[in-house]
Design a protein that fits this description.
single chain, 287 residues, alpha/beta, Rossmann fold, 2 domains, 5-stranded parallel β-sheet, 4-stranded parallel β-sheet, 10 helices, 9 strands, 40% helix, globular
Length: 287
């Protein structure tokens, strides 16, 4: 069976992700107590269901202790298990809760010390939730939804569920340093030292996918040298991540605006590794 576990910080888009998966034909369960996962899988298999998704979040945080062992057991039984963890910056989450005027799920469950006698603030709830789910996040493919539209998130979730099973999927992601480093990157490489096509009025409206920008950067010896250095780093350390049973490795490539240099480098690296690895590509500023 193909099993997708969706988790993450409240307000980061779990409902959007679960709806996408349900539309793709998965049997979906929201807020499943982790202890019921093996029993649910057995029941679904008896009914001939081969694709299932479960949302597990902080409402069941106190039951997460045995989940890593359960996941490992399911994998040993031959199931394909993927964990998708959605997160976002605290500032983004606060803004979203303010827009919807909803309270945080933990606000009625957690209290400050009796001497203070008050519920936690929204920011305190968010930070407490991060700590609760830290172990699960470490096991998952993480997506930072801070600056993503709901439509872009839907597209990225579709990419995750459509990817074929592989020991390790390489995720190459371009971003803009002026917006901030995404929370979902395992490694970050800075390509701002490369000549910037932005300062050529003919190249400014284009992106790192366009032939004119590619030709401009390919002509820079520094760009080729940096590409080789990043490629060699990934090739050297990727076997260690496979040995550590990681499902996803996210490589963030950043430039100032996330439009030219970082996009060019992501596309170049992805093209190379696609011949031997499972690869996904994301461009945060082109979405």
């Amino acid at each position: 069976m193909r099993i997708l576990l969706i988790s993450g910080i409240s307000g980061s888009g779990k409902s959007v992700a679960l709806n996408v998966v349900e539309d793709a034909g998965y049997y979906c369960v929201d807020n499943l107590p982790p202890s019921l996962l093996p029993e649910l899988i057995t029941t679904l298999l008896s009914e001939g269901i081969q694709n299932a998704a479960m949302a597990i979040d902080s409402r069941s945080a106190h039951l997460l202790t045995g989940l890593p062992d359960t996941i490992e057991k399911l994998k040993l039984e031959g199931h394909e298990v993927t964990i998708l963890f959605l997160t976002a910056s605290t500032e983004s989450l606060v803004a979203r809760f303010s827009e919807t005027r909803r309270s945080h799920p933990l606000s009625h469950r957690l209290q400050k010390a009796p001497s203070i006698g008050d519920r936690l603030s929204l920011t305190e709830c968010i930070e407490e939730e991060r700590e609760m789910l830290a172990t699960l996040q470490f096991l998952a493919h993480v997506v930072d939804t801070s600056s993503l539209s709901a439509n872009t998130l839907r597209t990225w979730v579709k990419d995750v569920i459509q990817v074929e099973h592989a020991p390790l999927t390489l995720m190459f992601e371009s971003f803009a340093f002026k917006i901030g480093v995404p929370l979902d990157t395992d490694f970050v490489f800075d390509v701002r030292m490369l000549p910037n096509p932005y300062y050529d009025v003919n190249l400014r409206p284009l992106t790192g996918r366009d032939t004119a920008v590619v030709d401009f950067l390919e002509a820079q010896a520094m760009a080729q040298e940096l590409y080789e250095d990043i490629r060699h780093f990934i090739e050297k350390w990727m076997p260690s991540f496979k040995h550590d049973n990681r499902s996803y490795l996210t490589i963030g490539i950043g430039c100032t605006g996330g439009q030219h240099r970082s996009v060019f480098m992501v596309e170049k690296l992805a093209a190379y590794f696609k011949s031997s690895e499972q690869v996904l590509v994301r461009h945060r500023r082109l979405s």
